[in-house]
Design a protein that fits this description.
By secondary structure, this protein is an alpha/beta fold. It contains four helices and five strands, in the order βαβαβαβαβ. The protein has one domain: NAD(P)-binding Rossmann-like Domain (Rossmann fold, 3-Layer(aba) Sandwich), CATH 3.40.50. The chain is 42% helix and 17% strand. A five-stranded parallel β-sheet has the order 3-2-1-4-5, sandwiched between helices. α4 links the parallel β4 and β5. The radius of gyration is 16 Å and the shape is globular. InterPro entries: NAD(P)-bd_dom_sf, SDR_fam.
């Protein structure tokens, strides 16, 4: 039995890389996928690819740094697509360089996307997901840099 079949997945950072790959996998499991990213063209291309292959997907531009934008993502998803069974907090950025040379604005961007973005996703979606009788999952992705520091990646680690 496939517990994901017929469910809705919301994937942040779905415009490329791991997020796009997870969207392809979710569609292969029979899920409808809501692709969220700041790059409208990228998520439109992923949506077109998934739908051309017979999948069901919609794209929503969303900046996970903004709690109101994440709230709007949830409202649109529940209104237009359905109850969320899988939330994948995947959006993330890297910052290379020495920590002491990193501008505060770059540091804040990493924190706002990689940490606060996950917080906004969980805080917004999880209460709605838990209010149903269905099993639901939240996947919070992170970089290997969160457990293993690498040279010139201190701002990300």
């Amino acid at each position: 039995m496939n517990p994901f079949a017929g469910g809705v997945a919301v994937i942040t950072g779905a415009g490329a890389g791991i997020g796009a790959g997870l969207a392809r996998h979710a569609v292969s499991l029979g899920m409808t996928v809501v692709l969220a990213d700041v790059d409208a063209d990228a998520i439109a291309a992923v949506r077109e690819e998934l739908c051309a292959a017979g999948g069901s997907a919609v794209d929503v531009v969303c900046d996970v740094r903004d709690p109101d934008a994440v709230q709007e993502l949830a409202q649109r998803t529940y209104r237009d697509v359905g109850a969320v069974r899988l939330l994948v907090n995947n959006a993330g950025v890297e910052q290379f360089g020495y920590l002491w040379d990193t501008p505060l604005s770059n540091w804040q961007r990493v924190v706002d996307i990689n940490i606060s973005g996950v917080f906004h996703g969980v805080r917004t979606f999880l209460p709605k997901m838990m209010a149903t009788d269905e099993h639901a999952w939240v996947w919070n992705l992170s970089s290997v840099g969160s457990v293993l520091a690498a040279p010139l990646q201190a701002p990300t680690s």
